[in-house]
Amino acid sequence: MKETLYDKIWNEHMVHQNPDGSSLLYIDRHLIHEVTSPQAFDGLNIEKRKIWNNKSIYAVSDHNVPTKNRLAGIDDKISKLQVDTLIDNCKKHDISYFDLNDINQGIVHVIGPELGITQPGMTLVCGDSHTSTHGALASLAFGIGTSDVEHVLATQCINVNKEKNFKIIIKNSLNDFISSKDLILHIIKTIGTSGGTGFTIEFAGSCIEQMSVEGRMTMCNMSIEAGAKSGLVAFDNNTLNYMLDKKYIPGKNHIDNAIKYWEKLVSDDDAHFDKELIIDALDVVPQVTWGTSPEMTVDVYGKTPNPNDESDINKRDYITRALDYMGLKANQDIQSINIDKVFIGSCTNSRIEDLRQAAEVLNGEKISGSIKQAIVVPGSGHVKAQAENEGLDKIFIKSGFEWRDPGCSMCLGMNDDSLLPYERCASTSNRNFEGRQGDKGRTHLVSPSMAAVAAIKGHFSSVVDFINEK
Amino acid sequence: MKNKIIHGQVIPFNQSNIDTDAIIPKQYLKSIKKSGFGPFLFDSLRYLDPGDLSTKAKRKINPEFILNKAPYSSGNIILANDNFGCGSSREHAVWAIKDYGIEVVISTSFADIFKRNSFKNSLLLISISKNILDKLFQEILDSPNYELTIDVQNQTITTPSKQAYDFDISDSDKERIIQGYDDIGLSLMHKNKIEQYEKKMKQKKPWMFGKQS
């Protein structure tokens, strides 16, 4: 029987098949953070249940933490209580926790792969929808709610129905200065925000084969924005080279066997996929979202849509409402949209390669005087240290950006980093929903280099043109 | 098996892709409790002024928002367009819907994580075809005092004109709605199987167990 990569990891982890068709699936790694775990620990206490395997769990605070003046601690009492609750729970159950001032601290989906906590062939869950990120390492990873966090704590398993297989083949290579972020936005624009619902997406094709593991993480990260809980990329030499220097990878006694195991983590030739899509990487130009859903994406050279071109009344209302919220007109040139703030960060785009791409554009440049604030929030302590070793922090600061400490920050604005009403932001994050970055705030999703160009120009403009003119 | 009949006013929320950020905004996720989220359901749509967990002042109601309009303000069934509950995995969205008093959400489709979270909290989600959804929206437009009766055991939705529609639901989800379901307790009935699986895998791939450094 030919199997897809998803089939292989699924079958390897199936403990029991339930009469209703769902399966009890074994979970190898469980990542927890402060926002979605306290009620799960409470639930365990109430039922007097034990944690199945505390060694499978790693914890970090990321959503709700300040990104400046770290040493002063957390000012907001409600946020502090939430972080302290996580610390207490970890102490009580002897769970590894990365403290705010630990170099290992960072966004949960950045530190998992970076520390080698995430390994190929594993099943991994976290109470956060962007857990799909970890699929870039050929691991089956998906976000869960708090009830399921409690379930995994207590049983090391989860009851799930198997998804269908969806293969997206990206042929050819991306042009210079076009990033994986542009590619995934282009794909979401093509299949829609529910185009992947009910599926696990495997990204394949020559473009993915050439892509760095960090680029693949951006692709898998935003699978959920197309409705797919999990994204996957097959194991290859890029994955192996990425893994080899990571802190928690298998020790000397096991590494050879582990690599042999990892090398099988690819879809069989002729394995059956329920759905397939071919995308030509050469078609992808820099992308900018114009609306309030990640599917509302357009080429930087394009315009906002005109609701009157839409015959379906619901779709017309959907576009009208989004334009209205975003403070934009129909048929407006994307390059004419002026912005107030710039955010480079989030589990989508805060890794070292993302920061290098932005810094390359910003080197020797100043951000526009019309920009109220521009911040770079590295994904982890290690990313921050690496960037500082390379002098990227100096480039950012010299150009007018603020250089911050790691966390989720303005992606969802649970901490102090957020948009004021009606402020417009060029953001490297993953969601442009109403109010996501702050009440009435307006988010445009872009790649790191496009965010850098927007910061310099004060409005959206193509990074390709910018580099050519430089 | 017992049955559960849900009857009540429908709230027509005719939008697609209603995301969990809209259902419960991030400032409320700082709570470490499961209860008390009802007053913040659809917070930024429902109120004209911003709020957070420390807000003491009475909020300004947005009279234009569907939940604030009679007869919908007394509703317990939401009717929404495609892909309800997309985005963040926050279970707080389901806790807010339930705490407000909503018992059922009807749509053509739901996001996967939201769907799991809903049934775990006995919130009934019903998927119906686009044709029926459009028909129901039209009927509510014609007569706003519109009450549906949902028979969970027999899997039917009955409209005020006694038109009945069938819906699909798995047996386990039906049980979750009718009498609640101890998912963890049931999984722990397979404790031996989980232990056997672990034992086997510890031999096959020992590097995945315990911490390495």
Structure explained in plain terms:
The complex is a heterodimer of chains A (470) and B (213). By secondary structure, chain A is α/β, with parallel strands linked by helices. Chain A has two domains: 5-276, Aconitase, domain 3; 287-469, Aconitase, domain 3. Chain A contains 16 helices and 19 strands. Chain A has helices at residues 5-13, 38-47, 77-93, 108-114, 146-155, 180-191, 206-210, 213-221, 237-243, 255-262, 313-326, 352-362, 381-389, 392-399, 448-457, 463-469, and strands spanning 14-17, 23-26, 29-32, 57-60, 96-98, 123-126, 140-143, 157-160, 164-171, 199-204, 230-232, 275-280, 287-289, 297-299, 341-344, 373-376, 402-403, 424-427, 442-445. In chain A, the strands form five sheets. Chain A has a five-stranded parallel β-sheet with strand order 5-4-3-6-7, covered by helices on one side. In chain A, strands 17-16-15-18-19 form a five-stranded parallel β-sheet. Chain B folds into two domains: 5-181, Aconitase, domain 4; 182-213, no CATH class. Helices cover 32% and strands 15% of the residues of chain B. Chain B has helices at 20-23, 43-46, 92-100, 112-120, 130-142, 171-179, 183-188, 191-204; strands at residues 5-13, 77-80, 104-107, 124-127, 147-151, 156-158, 164-166. In chain B, strand 5 (147-151) and strand 6 form a beta hairpin. At the A-B interface, helix 2, helix 3, helix 5, helix 10 and helix 11 of A face helix 4, helix 7 and helix 8 of B.
